[in-house]
Design goal:
Elements: H1 43-56, E1 60-63, H2 66-77, E2 83-87, H3 92-101, E3 108-112, E4 127-131, H4 143-153, E5 156-160, H5 165-168, E6 178-182, E7 196-199, H6 203-216, H7 222-232, H8 235-253, E8 261-263, E9 270-274, H9 278-287, E10 292-293, E11 303-306, E12 318-322, H10 328-340
Length: 342
């Protein structure tokens, strides 16, 4: 990925992709160039796509947010009369899209817990939508097993891989037909832009994703693409620190008297903590100087939020903790002090 762009540059060309802000391109006579109109294609967006494609080892279509990528994936895999299986404990806006928008287009869905995917009959479904670890509950399912079952049932398997990124989990290698990701999170990593992508090795799905972006106008902003490309250059070293910090914090959380339950899938940087009640959870988040109280996750700073406030089916005291890149000793000391004060 690091050399996907620089390895093809001529002398004097910039290492970082230029931010190309244009709606129009020079286009006299017969349009014999891919660059025709800003809604269709942009060189800065292409640079970000090339970097992500190097990680996914698959072609990529970028979108202006993770939710735009999710919408595209649903629109290109489900049609009127189809039924979609989604996790009841996964990202709630995916279910909102199906329930409040796509239901009006005769697309129906069922929601079951992530851990129940292994025993769910997939034959009624045209699309199986998996998210492992689930967000925010961090439950797991086997992508390979579900991919085999989905193939037998004639269903398309889409995997939301936002939480782990292609460096920690590779759904396409495990049999998924399509991957979606909110690159706003760890991929870009600095909490300063919105971005998303779909990746697939299926030529027909790739063409549909590109067509959907073109006709829906869902192309990313060039500056957001530049920021995402910049963030991707440090993805591996950020993940290394974030995962190491998460592992170190698990030694604090396990058996801690202030924590009723801790969930961690064994890799990654997101930890689920259940405290006694809403007040304890809010105090833990707001009083710890090393925790930034905010939604989303995957930034360089440690952040947390009480997910029940959004209506997720979790206890009132459940905290989704996104572990950042702070120096480990300082981070642990601050969090231990916050827990001790509860």
């Amino acid at each position: 990925m690091l050399h996907a762009r620089s390895g093809h540059l001529e002398n004097g060309e910039p290492i970082s992709p230029p931010i190309v802000t244009t709606a129009k391109y020079a286009l006299a006579g017969t349009p014999n160039t891919p660059y025709t109109y800003g809604r269709d294609i942009n060189p800065t967006v292409e640079a970000a796509e090339a970097a992500i494609a190097a990680l996914e080892e698959a072609p990529v279509v970028a979108f202006p947010s993770g939710m735009a990528a999710i919408t595209a994936a649903l629109m290109i895999t489900a049609k009127a009369g189809d039924r979609v299986l989604v996790p009841s404990d996964g990202y709630y806006v995916t279910r909102v899209m199906l329930e409040e928008i796509l239901s009006g287009h005769d697309i129906r869905f069922d929601a079951v817990p992530t851990r129940a995917f292994a025993t769910t009959d997939l034959s009624p479904y045209a699309v199986v939508w998996a998210e492992t670890p689930s967000n925010p509950g961090l439950d797991l399912c086997s992508i390979r097993s579900i991919a085999e079952a989905a193939k037998s049932a004639g269903a398309t398997l889409v995997v939301d891989n936002t939480t782990l990124t292609p460096l920690l989990q590779r759904p396409l290698d495990l049999g998924a037909d399509l991957v979606v990701s909110s690159d706003t999170k760890a991929m870009a990593g600095h909490s300063d832009c919105l971005f998303g992508h779909v990746a697939t090795r299926d030529d027909a799905l790739l063409a549909k994703a590109a067509k959907w972006r073109k006709v829906s106008g869902s192309i990313p902003d060039p500056f957001a693409a530049f920021l995402t490309h910049r963030g991707l250059m440090t993805l591996e070293i950020r993940l290394e620190r974030m995962c190491a910090n998460a592992t170190a914090l698990m030694n604090v959380f396990e058996d801690h008297p202030a924590i009723e339950q801790v969930k961690y899938p064994g890799m990654g940087f997101v930890i689920g903590l259940t405290l006694a009640n809403e007040a304890k959870a809010e105090a833990f988040i707001n009083d710890c100087p090393a925790i930034f109280a905010s939604t989303s996750f995957g930034g360089v700073h440690t952040s947390a939020e009480r997910r029940a406030r959004w209506g997720d089916n979790v206890p009132d005291g459940f905290v989704r903790l996104s572990v950042g890149c702070e120096p480990s000793d300082a981070l642990i000391t601050a969090i231990e002090a916050s827990l001790a004060a509860l």
